[in-house]
């Protein structure tokens, strides 16, 4: 992955554009500006305001800190600040798709996390001798979660499953290292009695 073109292709395949967030923000901004413009035009034409005229809105904003309860003003300010932080966060951080890249030399190989999870679950099924539906694998950007549900009375060593999963993941040659967590989910004795 040494060429700039290859790096750009991989980035485009593993990161999502913020198109939806940008679209929502632009639509909300356009609607707000259209409303403000409409209220200004109605005020200039000496027509009644739809909701609040420019002069009344300005007076309300100026008197807001003293006319409203302090708790309500603080809560409203906190909500607006949170919305601002969310929009700034969406603007600055890249969106990540649920994909991983594999080390394939001078080629770009991008694999969906679901494919990695399915292959790992199948391998663990073959290694443990358990049915495929008793193994659940979730693959994230930084971790792989494996849940194994052996039947009652079936001995299963967690460290064996952990090492089998890690060895199989090494054969996939993921460019970003992932942490593997294994959980053995045994049925309760009460469920067996029912």
Order of adjacent strands in the largest pleated sheet: 5-6-7
* Biggest β-sheet description: 3 strands, mixed
Number of helices: 7
- Per DSSP, what share of the residues sits in E-state strands of 2 or more residues? 15-25%
Explain the overall architecture.
The chain is of the alpha+beta class and 194 residues long. 57% of the residues lie in helices and 17% in strands. The protein is built from seven helices and seven strands; from the N terminus they run αβαααβββαββαβα. The chain has helices at residues 4-14, 19-44, 54-67, 70-92, 113-128, 158-172, 189-193; strands at 15-16, 95-96, 99-104, 107-112, 135-139, 143-148, 179-184. The strands form three sheets. It has a three-stranded mixed β-sheet with strand order 5-6-7, covered by helices on one side. A two-stranded antiparallel sheet has the order 1-2. 8% of the residues are buried. Mean pLDDT is 85; it is low at 189-194.
Quickly describe the structure:
The chain crosses the membrane at residues 20-38, 70-92. The protein is of the alpha+beta class.
Keywords:
three-stranded mixed β-sheet; two-stranded antiparallel sheet; alpha+beta; 194 residues; 17% strand; 57% helix; elongated
